[in-house]
């Protein structure tokens, strides 16, 4: 069995903010939306249903926990959760805070326009608030 | 506690094909993609993390089962799973079979173009094959 290795495009487009039991929790380098990416640290996974039952339960619990925290800290109108993988095949789950009137509301964020860089202080504040909420 | 009632837009845009333990399993009236919609039959739910722990486990298992079956019967390049809800707030999960070169590949299907009606025989064949696979 090969070892988990993060896809290079995910590595380039997002930064690691925490390592959970199963997933790398990462923040997308795009200030248009609070946008998290969760990557199960298992090799050769493409579809959620390829995970073992135990890993699938862990992924569901971790995504739920992160989504609830993201909603609470951002007061988002709606959380969008998606596992697409049409471009990057390594299994990853997007968790995004959406707001009425945001850059592509109410359409999906994937494939829309170009990433906009974060002000590093704002990004750090978001990460700190999220990590505080997750640790409670 | 109010009773579950299907959102009128989901009712209009998709047809019921099976009632699972938790979800209505529905097929979207759009022949561009084999596109299923799963609606937990629980009142007043908007986000996945609002479900009880038991319901959440059921939803995860049902989505997994359906996604795996859809991939197998369609030989899709990739299954897309998403819970957005920016327009219709009633909690629902999309499970879509995607193919290289399909109508909006590799972009997301949501908000893209207009639905195209099914040839009713083709639609029925897809539903029959899916139901057979799910019942095994």
UniProtKB/TrEMBL annotation, chains A, B:
Gene Ontology MF term list: hydrolase activity
Residue span, HIT domain: 36-105
Keywords from the UniProt entry: Hydrolase
Stretches of the chain forming a coiled coil according to its record: none
InterPro entries on file: HIT-like (IPR011146), HIT-like_sf (IPR036265), HIT_Hint (IPR026026)
Transmembrane stretches, start-end: none
Domain of life: Bacteria
Protein's name in the database: Diadenosine tetraphosphate (Ap4A) HIT family hydrolase
């Amino acid at each position: 069995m090969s070892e988990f290795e993060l896809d290079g495009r995910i590595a380039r487009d997002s930064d690691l903010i925490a390592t959970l039991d199963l997933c790398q929790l990462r923040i997308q380098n795009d200030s248009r939306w609070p946008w998290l990416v969760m990557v199960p640290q298992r090799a050769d996974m493409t579809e959620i249903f390829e995970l073992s039952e135990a890993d699938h339960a862990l992924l569901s619990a971790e995504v739920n926990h992160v989504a609830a925290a993201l909603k609470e800290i951002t007061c988002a109108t709606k959380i969008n959760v998606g596992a697409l993988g049409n471009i990057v095949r390594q299994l990853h789950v997007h968790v995004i805070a959406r707001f009425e009137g945001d850059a592509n509301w109410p359409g999906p964020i994937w494939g829309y326009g170009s990433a906009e860089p974060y002000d590093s202080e704002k990004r750090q504040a978001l990460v700190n608030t999220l990590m505080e909420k997750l640790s409670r």
